[in-house]
Amino acid sequence: MRKIMVIHGPNLNLLGVREPEHYGHTSLERINHQLAEVSRAQGIALETFQSNSEEQIVGCIQRLFDSPVDFIIINPAAFTHTSIAIRDALSAVGIPFIEVHLSNVFAREPFRHHSYFTDKALGLICGLGPYGYELALAAALHYLES
Ligand code: DQA
Q1: What is the CA radius of gyration of the chain?
Q2: Neighbouring residues of 16: CB distance < 8 A, sequence distance ≥ 6
Q3: How far does residue 108's CA lie from ligand 1's centre (Å)?
Q4: Mean per-residue pLDDT for 36-64?
């Protein structure tokens, strides 16, 4: 059975409450539930992980050496713009990944225009809200089938 890991970075536990003008009204629980339903229907094992800590996210990725997955969908949130450590962890495990952002980071402050992940990612989806995760999952399935 194919396995996909979805990793959510800091403050994404506050989705639905946090700055809805940027991130909308959908909770993280709802997003994860939706992804789980699609995965179940497709016969994919989906795991989700959220942390506000860079160390925890690096640890989550490093554990994939022992329990590998076929694909990663990651919204590194603020760590997108700062974390060489998470970038290096993804390179270390060498698992293909898609980078997702709910907001269009390129239409926001200049410091959000740079990502430590995009050049390593299979693709980037941003600005489409929670639907971006569903598109990432569809793209991951397409990638794994081709
Ligand atoms: C975000 C964009 C980041 O710049 C920000 O720090 C976040 C969320 C997004 O999903 O739009 O926390 O990754």
Answers
A1: 14
A2: 24, 25, 26, 27, 28, 30
A3: 10
A4: 97
pLDDT score for 90: 98
| Cα 146 to middle of ligand 1, angstroms | 30
Give the residue-averaged pLDDT of 114-134: 98
Write the DSSP symbol of residue 129. Answer: T
Q: Rounded to the nearest 10 degrees, what angle do helices 54-62 and 84-93 cross at?
A: 10
pLDDT at 84: 98
**Measured distance CA(117)–CA(57) in Å, rounded:** 14
| Residue with CA closest to ligand 1 atom 12 | 77
**pLDDT band with cut points at 50, 70 and 90 for residue 10:** very high
Contact indicator for 97, 122 with CB cutoff of 8 Å: yes
